[in-house]
Fold this sequence. Notes:
- By secondary structure, the chain is an alpha/beta fold.
- The chain folds into 3 domains: 2-197, Rossmann fold; 206-293, N-(1-d-carboxylethyl)-l-norvaline Dehydrogenase, domain 2; 295-437, NAD(P)-binding Rossmann-like Domain (Rossmann fold).
- It is 42% helix and 14% strand.
- It has 18 helices and 15 strands.
- The protein has helices spanning 10-21, 33-40, 51-60, 70-75, 97-106, 126-135, 157-162, 174-184, 199-230, 234-242, 263-276, 282-294, 297-305, 333-343, 356-361, 373-377, 397-403, 418-424; strands spanning 2-6, 25-29, 64-67, 79-82, 114-118, 143-147, 167-170, 194-197, 314-318, 347-351, 367-369, 382-385, 408-411, 427-429, 436-437.
- The protein has a 7-stranded mixed sheet with strand order 11-10-9-12-13-14-15, sandwiched between helices. Strands 3-2-1-4-5-6 form a 6-stranded parallel sheet, with helices on both faces.
- The longest helix has 32 residues, at 199-230.
- The structure holds nicotinamide-adenine-dinucleotide (NAD).
Amino acid sequence: MNISVIGTGYVGLVTGTCFAEMGNTVSCVDIDADKVKRMQNGEVPIYEPDLEFLFERNSKQNRLRFTTDMEASVTDADIVFLALPTPPGDDGSADLSYILAVADQLGPMLKSYTVIVDKSTVPVGTAELVHRRIAKHVGADMFDVVSNPEFLREGVAVDDFMKPDRVVIGTSSERAADIMRRLYAPFVRQGNPIIVMDERSAEMTKYAANSYLAMRISYMNEIANLCERVGANVDQVRRGIGTDTRIGKRFLFPGVGYGGSCFPKDVKALVKTSSEYEYDFRILDAVMRVNEIQKDTLVRKVAAHFNNDLKGKKIAMWGLSFKPETDDIREAPSLNTIKGLVQLGAEVAAYDPEAMENVARECYENISFAKDPYEALNDADALLILTEWSAFRTPNFEEMKKRLKQQKIFDGRNVYDLDTMKKEGFYYSSIGRDVINSN
Length: 439
Ligand SMILES: NC(=O)c1ccc[n+]([C@@H]2O[C@H](COP(=O)([O-])OP(=O)(O)OC[C@H]3O[C@@H](n4cnc5c(N)ncnc54)[C@H](O)[C@@H]3O)[C@@H](O)[C@H]2O)c1
């Protein structure tokens, strides 16, 4: 099939590349001319495991192309994917201006029947809005608008896209549903379902999924905070409940709060939708409140430890991205933490395998970036761990102790076990577990 993907960010680029890998011809459109030029020159603008190889292979075989010319891309397409940003507006609702602006342009460009697919996360009713905008220019027999929410996780996006647990397709048109089923058939050969439903239910499914996952994280953070007070170990509790098949093992890890470009904005948007329908979604209000407080948990712990005075203190930080295997720092807890520490007078020396450039671009003061994890530790009064990159899991503890001025670790991701920390002689404060005070 000929596919046009409009918006070549994390979702659009992965979507386009994976469809090309299955033999489709994909033209990716972006408004950012510089980004398009880089992609035309073979550069992958984001970090995502396994993406570069597929990007190169499909670009070479001319199944994956990049352009700023939306009309040329759309005119030939059987299917047009909208993978545009839907950032939170001032009132928390999803900002639909990117989607609707493109929808307005699309109508006059359609020359034969085309399926228009909302891949972006959009509030209930958006497929109908997009339909109305396009129908101003062409007859209803020339197109259908389908909601096809994306569930990929950054960091494992290619794998998730290639082997989705399920594909959700929201449409009331049999013709569009057939085309979408054919497109996705190679991705579900192991038998995972393609679930066809109405547009509104598909749109709601995405918000329901993300809000539920955010709720699990906030719930576990609350359990962890209570574990600290009652002297229980949240790792044991997590194992204890995660083995219950009604609960399941995933998304039960406590930490420094959820971040990223999706959970915070999607929870907010669902609350906003609720209020528009005069429904008070009490659980999600609590989920957001808990998360805001949790994002500052390391700052509170460090401040309390150093009597609220970090003047002249150097704090090393491992991990900046909102989760491992990505360079994405949108709403990352590391950013709150840096601000909090600097406000209390600290100097921060940070290391992250992929995200340092993105943080440097935000122009924070009193932060330096190290070329490797150990360099960040030189003369530091404490190390904070914000992202559980694999490279931090089995470090050289002797080297760490040599470089740190004070052998103190504040771990926001529970990367190390308590016995190891005791044996190695660190002061070690983590989430939902006893503080080890070996110093
Ligand atoms: N990032 C994720 O993990 C993820 C997962 C599932 C769903 N989503 C949803 O997918 C959507 C896209 O997210 P993303 O993270 O890929 O966003 P992104 O910001 O990484 O990418 C959006 C791209 O759209 C481009 N763009 C903006 N206006 C344009 C226009 N008029 N024409 C062409 N291109 C234009 C931007 O230049 C950018 O490259 C959002 O609704 C998001 O909620 C994201």
